[in-house]
Amino acid sequence: MRVLIVEDEEKLARNVASVLKEVASSAVDLSHDGEDGLHMALTNSYDLIILDLMLPKVDGLTLLARLRTRKIQTPVLVLTARDAGSEVIRGLNLGCDDYVTKPFDMGELVARCKALIRRCHGQASSLIRVGPLAINTLSRQVEFGGQSFLLPAMEYRLLEYLAMRSGEVISKTEILDHLYDFHAERFSNVIEVYISALRRRFDPAPPYKLIHTLKGHGYMLGERAA
Amino acid sequence: MSQWPLKWRISLMVASAILAAAALNGVTAYLDMKELLIRATDHRLQSMTTGTFAVLDEHLTDEETKEEVRAIVGISAHRRVSVFRVWIDGNAADVPSSQIEGEASARILDASVLARVATPAPGKNVRFDCGKAGDEYRAIWARSRSGVGATNVAIAESSHYIYEDLAEYRNTLLWGAGSMLLMTIAAATLLVWLGLRPIGRTAQMLSVITERNVGEVRIEPDGVPVEIKPFVRAVSDLLARLAKALQEQKRFVSDASHELRTPLSVAQSTIDATLVKERTPREYRAALAEIHEDLDRMGRMIEELLVLARLDETMPERELEPVELAPLIESVAEGCRTRVVEAGGMIRLSLSAVTVRADSAQLMRLFSNLLDNAVRHGPKGGVIEISIRAEKDGVVVICVHDEGGAIPADALPHLFERFYRADPARSRSTGGTGLGLSIAREIALRHGGDITASSAPEEGTSFCVRLPTV
Questions:
Q1: Peptide linkage before B413 cis (omega within 30 of 0)
Q2: Identity of the residue in A57, A103, A105 whose CB atom sits nearest the CB atom of B261
Q3: Residue B392 phi/psi, 5° resolution?
């Protein structure tokens, strides 16, 4: 999952980012003002945007409104001061999906982030099942064949993303966009590397039943007769 | 009297004025009427004496004379009784022709009555009042022109009816004045009530205003009489000012809580992020150092909020004492010098001896805030200059100048507002609380001075404090 945090308090943004990386294995981009944040949100595809309302240059609500007029439907979680009820209402009307008041509990923030991303992909439960796979997005445990696995971060990230959108064909660029933050070193066949790692674990021999490669289109996770 | 209702006070004043006018008018009219009536009587009496002298000159018989004089004097009119006497000088007794009424004449015009009146010169007459209360007479005493043995004629006519008529006239005047007075009081009360009614309505409009809706309820001067409009407008302006002050107060509280909450959120997030998993002692140490920094920032802000709150209270005059500016600024600069020199910069002072009346601790805070601002916003390693310049008419200007980049012109007027940041993204990282400059201005204002900022790309930024000297 790839998350954008637009927050002018740099230390706070950094802390949220480190927690999201460590706990939710997300790729995180940081932006410290509204102008830059808007640019980032328009040029990259994110699974979630965490947005502070009091921002320099362009304030949070304006940023949100511009995103929505550009038809960008990425879920937005708003960070706001406790006594700003009217701002929350305006934010919800403008199309924010959830909000957390400052000072906030990091655990709650992460839980809400995960829930927003899940719901955005049509997964209401924190447990995603795809065929023989059961992915617990809270504990990051993957159950397969009566065994429980704790995958390396990038493998988990990829699996979770594919599972969220199971049944859909997802292009390689799309996967890259959602798995890596702006500063990550990308190399072209990284996805192939992780796909084959996942296959070794859960779908060892062709014909593949779970992880499918559609040449020229991308990848798809889902049980399908090969 | 000021505790009386206005309508009674105005009624009373109007009534007093009307009463005075009515009294003056009444007395004048009464006296005029009295004089008019008496003059008419006098005129008649004089005609009678002229006629009587003419009859006496005709050498008629006593009886004929008597008849003629009686006809002239006209004894038998309604409410009017006339008597007369005719006598010759040197002879106490009346001439026979006038000895008719005897009793009445003797009683009304007897010697004792005449003795009280100055004897008229020959050919002249005197007029006088006589008789007793309830039976008053107006009388005339005339003497013929001839020197020795002149003829005297005295005629008296009852004047009681004049006094009766006058009394009636007086009563009419009193009744008129009385009813006019009552009507005037009623009218004045009504008019005052009508006049004051808009004030009551205005008060009703004002009574619905509370601290919650003070900015929203608008008091309209329309439909209010012209005289009350300035009052309504003044009240409405006052309300607008109060609303603005309340608004500012609210904004300040909300800003303050936001500013305090931010380092709290940051510290909390640092703790949460650290506790996510096991860390090395080095990582814990780094986290604690960060939290320490945030708590420091909160502490500084709380302290400055307290300073502002104390400055908002009125400062007693007696705390002011003569303060030498130069040594005070030197010590402030000294406290800051290490920080500046370590960064490769320098502080340059060009001071002169000036004394102001001030609270020295507050002045130190003022200049220390300005210097701190210059250190934080000036370029690293730049020169900061503090100068004292005495101006005419007892004003001294102290300027703190740094070589920092220009502050946008539209930001300059707001620099002294609480929590204002010309560039929010940057100034938080410079560690300011957003209160330093507003504290500086508050102190300058408390000392009867002010503070201004100027900034230009080539010249850097200057903050100048103007203070009255001793």
A1: no
A2: A103
A3: -65, 175
Name the closest residue on chain B to residue A104, using Cα atoms.
B265
C-alpha distance from B246 to closest chain A C-alpha (Å): 18
List CB contacts (< 8 A) between B288 and chain A.
none
Nearest to B266 among A12, A22, A105 (CB): A12
pLDDT tens figures, B430-468: 567 788 888 999 899 888 899 999 888 888 889 999 999
Top-level class of domain A2-120: alpha beta
Nearest to B255 by CA among B435, B455, B56: B435
pLDDT band, very low/low/confident/very high, at A226 (cuts 50, 70, 90)? very low
Distance to chain B for A104, nearest Cα, Å = 7
The model's pLDDT over B406-421, given as tens digits with 9 standing for 90+, comes to 788 888 888 888 887 6
Distance CA B145, CA B53 (A): 10
The tokens for B330 are 């030197």
Interface check for B290 against chain A (CB to CB < 8 A): the answer is: yes
The verdict on whether omega for the bond into residue B424 sits within 30 degrees of 0, i.e. cis, is no
- DSSP 3-state assignment of A103? coil
Q: What span, in angstroms and rounded, lies between the C-alpha atoms of A206 and A184?
A: 32
Q: What is the pLDDT of residue B292?
A: 93
Single out the residue of B384, B387, B363 nearest to residue B374, CA to CA.
Answer: B384
Q: Give Cα A2 distance to the centre of its chain.
A: 4
Give the max Cα distance, chain A: 58
Structural domains of chain B sorted by starting position, each given as residue range(s) with its CATH number in brackets: 6-167 (3.30.450), 229-310 (1.10.287.130), 318-468 (3.30.565.10)
Would an 8 Å CB–CB cutoff place B461 in contact with chain A?
A: no
- Domain limits of chain A? 2-120, 127-221
Nearest to B273 among A18, A54, A104 (CB): A18
| C-alpha to C-alpha distance for A157 and A28, rounded to whole angstroms | 12
CB A117 within 8 A of CB A1: yes
Q: With an 8 Å Cβ cutoff, is A19 touching chain B?
A: yes
Q: Which ipTM score applies to this complex?
A: 0.71
Contact criterion met (CB < 8 Å) for B425 and A32: yes
Question: Any idea of the CA torsion for B437, B439, B441, B442, to the nearest 10 degrees?
Answer: 160
Residue type at B225? P
Q: What is the rounded (10 degree) CA torsion for B264, B269, B270, B272?
A: 130
C-alpha R_g of chain A: 18
Residue-averaged pLDDT of chain B: 83
Which CATH fold would you assign to the domain A127-221? Arc Repressor Mutant, subunit A (1.10.10)
Interface probe for B, chosen from A10, A16, A83, A106 (most Cβ of B below 10 Å), is A106
